[in-house]
Amino acid sequence: MSPVLEVRLERERFAPGEAVAGAVVVVEGGSSRSLSVSVVYREWTPDYTHDWVKLPGGVLHQGDLVAGASHPFSVQLPSPAVPGCAGPSCGVAWFVEAGSDELGLDTHERQEFEVEAGPGAGDALAAMLQAVSGAAPGAVAGAAPAAAAATLAPAAPGVTAAGAAPPANWYPDPSGQARLRWWDGARWTEHTAP
After folding, report:
1. Which among 185, 191, 182, 186 is positioned nearest to 58, based on CA atoms?
2. What is the CATH number of the domain that holds 74?
3. Helix count (H) and strand count (E) of the chain?
4. Which of 194, 1, 5 is CA-nearest to residue 99?
5. Could you report the per-residue pLDDT of 143-163, keeping only the tens digit for each?
6. Which domain holds residue 151?
7. How many domains, in total, are found in the chain?
8. Do residues 164 and 97 share a domain?
9. Which of 63, 128, 175, 178 sits CB 3.0–4.6 Å from 192 for a disulfide?
10. Helix (H), strand (E), coil (C) string for 23-74
C-alpha cells in the first residue's frame, strides 16, 4: 500500500536567501524505503516540464511511513532566487516536492510557494537565466559557448584569473555532477541545477 503525503509550509511566501521550512505529513501510512524533500524552480507548458533549479533537502525518514507522522524540513533558497510567474499556457514557479521511495511507483506530493521580488529581482533573473543558458552577461547571440562559460566560471573554486573571489552566482559545475552549481562568493555549495 502506498502512503498519502501532504506538504505543509510555515507560510506561503519566502524571501530570496531564506530557508523554506515546513513539514511532510503522512496522511495515510504505507510501505516506503525513504522519504525525501527538495525545492525546485520549475518551468511548464502543456507539453513540456523542466526543473531549472533543484535544491535537495535530504532524507527525512527511512523505512515505512506511519499515518499522522510529521517530518520537518528546511531548505535554503539561494539569494538570487527569483519570483515565479504564470500565463494562460505556461509558467515558472517554486515548489517543495516530497517523495516516498517505494518498490514500484513512488509517491510524490508537491506544494507551490511564492518568492518575494526583492530589490534587484530583474538583475537576479537575468543572472540566473544567463547562467542557465550558458550565455555570458552582455554576450552577443552566437558567441562561442566555451568563451561564454569562461566568463561565468571561476578559474578554480574561489579564484578568478585576477586572483579575486568571484561574486555569488550560478556557475558551470566544476565537478561535472550537474550543469550549474551555486557559488556563494566564498565556496561551492550543495545547490545545483540540471
Report:
1. 191
2. 2.60.40.640
3. 2, 12
4. 5
5. 233 333 333 333 334 444 444
6. 146-188
7. 2
8. no
9. 178
10. EEEEEECECCCEEEEEEEEEEEECCEEEEEEEEEEEEEEECCECCCCEEEEE
